[in-house]
Each structure stands twice: as structure tokens, then as C-alpha cells.
């Protein structure tokens, strides 16, 4: 006699992402809102990467990591938002089995990479402020490349193992995911049979890719703040703190929204509120990063002004000719 669970698994070739089903009458507004956010996110982060590559004054470790972070944010948004936009535009909320796991893989890999990239950036700021005499020796080109490459590789390789285990789960219905993307938590809940191993693996992965980089980031800023407080002049303290304030704001927003969102997942919170909070770290954080760095960083604003002036000059020359 055939196993009914496995028979149903064979039939399950797609999932249904419920998304913002309770706001169906707001589809046009949500589509336009997410479209503006996506275009602004890609344009802003692409501009940062272009300036970091083109301007020799930005060829420093801090901007090298910022370029990596901006590239990651562009990929991060492109993993989620095009699928959300297509769903809002066409009304088709289905996603193929393989497509769901592919989205989950890239989302998890990029989120894990971001945690370690932010930690590498905090370590860079720690060396610059607490070990200024040894900064250029310790944070050389080889070290920068190793930290960045390690962040990307660890995130993508470890997430591949997790998704491989997830794909072995038996799904026997229902096939509705109460989210706007393929998040592991609701996906595990749809599995049949014993899911304790997957729940444990998901918890281990979350701890490995959030706790160590978070603790490293906190430790770096404890040392940074202690060093800044020992600077005698208020002007010196303010100038030194300004070199790491942008990164500190980004880290606070990133970890703060994740902490709030996943804490509320364990509580009896309205589902729409959980989805809105998820939007904060999946959609709004990639948008906020280029704004924070461009508005608070003098060197970046000077590079942007120089690039704009050069572009205007080129337009004037071309119009005259």
C-alpha cells in the first residue's frame, strides 16, 4: 500500500505565498510603494559601489567593506522584491517548489553574509580608533580580502547545507506559506512527520550566524567607546565618533529589527504586524544603508559632489559640440 504522505509530497510542486492577503484592495498602492523602494535601493547601493570603485580617495578598507555591503544589499533586495512585485501586479501568489528553496537559499546566505560583513566593518573601526599606529599594517589589502571573502563563503556554504536538509522534508499539505517570501520557520511548519531535527538545525544556524558576529560587533564598540571617552577634547571625541557613527546606526537598525521581529514570532502577535516588522530588515534596511552613509559621511559626500560636477561638465561639453 502506498504511503499517503509521500504520495501527497509528489503532488506538491508549488507553494502559495499568502503575502499581504488581508490588504488585497491596496495592491496598487503596495505595488507602487515596493517599486519605488526597490528602484531607490538598487540605485543608491549601485551608486555607492560605483563611487568606491571610481574615486581613489575611497580606496580604503572602510569603503572596501562598504562596497561589499552595498553589493550585498542590492542582491538581498533582488532576492525578495521582484517576486513580491510580480505577485502584486498579476495576483499570482504561487511559487514553484524549487523556486521557493532557491529564494530561501539566497536570502539565508545573504543575511548570514551581512552579519559577518558588519562584524568585519566593526573590527575595521576598532583597529582605526583603538590601534591607529598599527592600523595600516593590520588592516592591509590581504586582510580586507580575506575578511570579505570569508564572510561571503561562510554564508553561502553553510546555508547550502541547511537548505539541502530542508529539501528532504516531506510536505503533505497544506501548501500555503503565511508570509511574503519563503521563510524557513513557516516552511518547516508545513512539513509532515518529525520536524525536531530541522527546528534544531534552524536554531543552530541562527545562533552561529548571528551570535558570534553580534558579540564581536558589541565588543568592538565597547572598546571604541572606551577609547573615545579617554580623548580629552570634546571636538576630538566628536570627530573620532563620526568615523564610526554611520556603521553603528546601520548595525543598530539591522540587529534591532531582527530581534524585535523574531521575538514577536514567539508571541501571539497579529500576523500582519509580524510581516510589517519583517519588512523592516528585509526591505527597509537595504534602502536605509546608502542614505545613512551618504548623508553622514563627509568623504562620501565630497566624492558624490565631484562625480556630479564631472557629469554636468561632460553634459555641457556634449551639448556645445
Give a verbal description of the structure.
Helices cover 78% and strands 3% of the residues. The protein is an all-alpha fold and 321 residues long. The protein has a three-stranded mixed beta sheet with strand order 2-1-3. Helix 4 packs parallel to helix 8, helix 6 packs antiparallel against helix 8 (196-229) and helix 10 (271-296) packs across helix 11 (298-320). The longest helix is centred in the middle third of the chain and has 34 residues, at 97-130. It is globular. Residues 1-10 have low confidence and may be disordered.
In short:
The protein is mainly alpha-helical. The protein has helices at residues 4-11, 27-54, 61-90, 97-130, 135-138, 141-166, 184-189, 196-229, 234-265, 271-296, 298-320; strands spanning 14-17, 94-96, 176-177.
What helical percentage do the residues reach?
Answer: over 70%
Mean pLDDT: 84
What's the multimeric state?
A: single chain
Which class best fits the helix and strand makeup? mainly alpha
> How many strands?
3
Radius of gyration: 22 Å
Q: Count up the helices.
A: 11
Straight-line distance between termini: 82 Å
The unreliable regions are 1-10
The strands making up the biggest β-sheet line up spatially as: 2-1-3
The major β-sheet equals:
3 strands, mixed
Order of helices and strands: HEHHEHHHEHHHHH
Strand content: under 5%
Shape: globular
Amino acid at each position: 500500500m502506498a504511503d499517503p504522505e509521500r504520495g501527497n509530497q509528489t503532488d506538491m510542486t508549488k507553494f502559495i505565498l499568502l503575502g499581504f492577503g488581508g490588504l488585497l484592495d491596496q495592491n496598487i498602492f503596495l505595488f507602487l510603494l515596493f517599486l519605488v523602494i526597490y528602484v531607490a535601493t538598487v540605485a543608491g547601493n549601485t551608486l555607492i559601489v560605483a563611487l568606491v570603485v571610481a574615486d581613489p580617495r575611497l580606496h580604503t578598507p572602510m569603503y572596501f567593506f562598504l562596497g561589499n555591503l552595498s553589493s550585498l544589499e542590492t542582491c538581498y533586495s533582488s532576492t525578495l522584491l521582484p517576486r513580491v512585485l510580480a505577485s502584486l501586479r498579476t495576483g499570482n501568489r504561487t511559487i514553484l517548489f524549487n523556486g521557493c528553496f532557491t529564494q530561501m537559499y539566497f536570502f539565508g546566505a545573504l543575511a548570514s553574509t551581512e552579519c559577518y560583513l558588519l562584524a568585519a566593518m566593526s573590527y575595521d573601526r576598532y583597529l582605526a580608533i583603538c590601534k591607529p599606529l598599527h592600523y595600516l599594517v593590520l588592516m592591509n589589502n590581504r586582510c580586507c580580502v580575506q575578511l570579505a571573502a570569508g564572510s561571503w563563503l561562510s554564508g553561502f556554504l553553510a546555508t547550502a547545507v541547511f537548505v539541502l536538509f530542508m529539501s528532504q522534508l516531506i510536505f503533505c499539505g497544506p501548501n500555503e506559506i503565511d508570509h511574503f517570501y519563503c521563510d524557513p520557520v513557516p516552511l518547516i511548519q508545513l512539513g509532515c512527520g518529525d520536524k525536531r531535527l530541522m527546528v534544531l538545525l534552524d536554531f543552530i544556524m541562527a545562533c552561529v550566524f548571528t551570535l558570534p558576529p553580534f558579540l564581536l560587533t558589541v565588543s568592538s564598540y565597547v572598546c571604541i567607546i572606551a577609547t573615545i571617552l579617554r580623548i580629552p577634547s570634546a571636538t576630538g571625541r566628536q570627530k573620532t565618533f563620526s568615523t564610526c557613527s554611520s556603521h553603528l546606526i546601520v548595525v543598530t537598525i539591522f540587529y534591532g529589527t531582527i530581534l524585535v521581529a523574531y521575538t514577536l514570532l514567539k508571541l501571539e502577535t497579529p500576523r500582519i504586524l509580524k510581516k510589517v516588522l519583517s519588512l523592516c530588515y528585509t526591505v527597509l534596511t537595504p534602502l536605509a544603508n546608502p542614505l545613512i552613509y551618504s548623508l553622514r559621511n563627509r568623504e562620501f559626500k565630497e566624492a558624490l559632489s565631484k562625480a556630479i560636477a564631472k557629469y554636468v561638465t561632460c553634459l555641457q561639453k556634449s551639448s556645445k559640440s
